Amino acid sequence: MRKKFSALLVAAAATAAVTVPLSPAHAADGYDRCPDGYYCMFSGLDGTGDMIKLRGNTPDLAAFGMNDRAKSDWNRTASTIYLWSDAHYTGCTAVTSAGPTGKGNFFPTYQDFFSSVQFDGPGGPSCGTPPGEDR
Length: 135
Hints:
Keywords: Signal. This protein is of the alpha+beta class. It has a domain at 29-119: Gamma-B Crystallin, domain 1 (Sandwich), CATH 2.60.20. The protein is built from one helix and seven strands, in the order αβββββββ. The strands form two sheets. Strands 2-1-3-6 form a four-stranded antiparallel β-sheet, with no helix packed on it. It has a three-stranded antiparallel β-sheet with strand order 5-4-7, with no helix packed on it.
């Protein structure tokens, strides 16, 4: 009986050692929430706030709750992204390039401004660069 009890005690101790809770992995935040292969828009500056991730043309950002709400973006696709001021690819466009330059805050004039997203164009009339504003 003593051997059985000792064996059970050792088994219980080994199980307890295995089930010690591990600290949770750090969740991605900011721009890092945007997965590779997606174009992401954020409602806050520097990739903060609400995020949507897109893999194709989006004629109306209202369907995703991001119409006139985006303040920053990251283009993690191979496509050039055309941001349209109005839904259904109307109004003027701004461009977000693919690659390392395709990440950042929108000019203040263009924060909370865009209503549709088009992959690879053809784009439309340029919204222009606001005077005195550099990215």
